[in-house]
Amino acid sequence: MTALLSIGELSARTGLPVRTIRFYSDAGVVPEADRTEAGYRLYGEDALVRLGLVRTLRDLGIDLATIRRVLEREVSVPDVAAAHAVALGAQIRVLRVQKAVLEAVARHGSDPQELQRMHKLAKLSDDERKRIVANFLDTAFEGLDMDPEFVARMKSGLPELPEEPSPEQVDAWIELAELVQDPAFAASVRRMSEQHAAARASGEPMQPDAGWQRAAELVSERAGAALAAGVDPASDEAARIVSELESAFPGEHTRAELADRIATGTDPQAERYWQLLAIINGWPPVPTTVPAWEWFIAALRA
Question: What sequence ranges are listed for the domain HTH merR-type (predicted)?
Fold first, then answer.
């Protein structure tokens, strides 16, 4: 018969403290084989193997409940290792983002309240980050007859922070999360959505129009140059530029109608929304064109 080991002998042979072995024994992962007449615990040789496996799995961060299932052969070690590797991967991604946030805090000298806010936003999972923006868009489109392809394009642009985000990407995510929770921005996007739904209801084509695209390029170029040169929107020079640009827009409209239509869709926050998404997702930079459009609107109304 194999000699039984006392808890002290088991401790000496495994290097584990007696209190740790007693804890594992009470948890049922290393059951005792017998007791002495004085009530002291005794263990079989198999306890050495079990303790070795328990120690290894605990060092890998696996919980006791799962270890018990492994020891009772309810699950295999490879299955547990695979599942734990996936979980650790998710934890590592979160830690990388948290590291980037701490670097952002160090750069900006954030106060305690801002630190808590930044930490809360940054520790969200990838799905949670996307859900914040998706919910914002759902609210903007709620109850409106929107073009399905337009909605699909909007919802395809969701934030995806890389596993090791740069400080600029972390800053952009925090700014984007604050932007989509801004009531003023939500109201602006809702107005744009209502204008879109009204145009759709009137039978206006919803696909990007080559004429409008060309007109937009001209506004960015000509109005942008006029703005940079300091041309007054109410000046004669501005009037000549407006005449040129106005004729580039397809369809019949008065200057006031054109100005009103453009104004609804001209929002620096909306442009910033796409600029932030581009930074977060590593897309090509989105140029700043809103100031040129604002100059053109002012010139149309002058």
Answer: 4-73
pTM: 0.66
Closest CA to 141 of 183, 208, 177, 192: 192
Tens-digit pLDDT profile for residues 115-162: 777 767 766 777 888 999 999 999 999 999 998 988 998 988 899 888
Look-up: residue for tokens 């060092």? 59
Domain that holds residue 30: 5-75
**Within a domain: 33:** yes
Q: What is the largest CA-CA distance in the chain?
A: 110
Quick one: residue 61, left, alpha or beta (phi over 0 = left, psi -120 to 50 = alpha)? left
Answer yes or no: is 163 within a domain: no
Phi, psi of 35 (to 5 degrees): -140, 150
Cβ pair 147, 205 in contact under 8 A: no
In a domain, 277, yes or no: yes
Residue closest to 11 by CA, chosen among 25, 2, 3, 1:
25
pLDDT for residue 2 is more than 70:
no
- Asked whether residue 85 is domain-assigned, the answer is no
The last residue of a domain, from among 40, 60, 75: 75
What total of structural domains would you count in the chain?
2
Compute the C-alpha angle 281/223/186, nearest 5°.
45
CATH of the domain at 60: 1.10.1660.10
Could you say which of 36, 52, 75 is where a domain stops? Answer: 75
Q: What are phi and psi of 42, to 5 degrees?
A: -130, 145
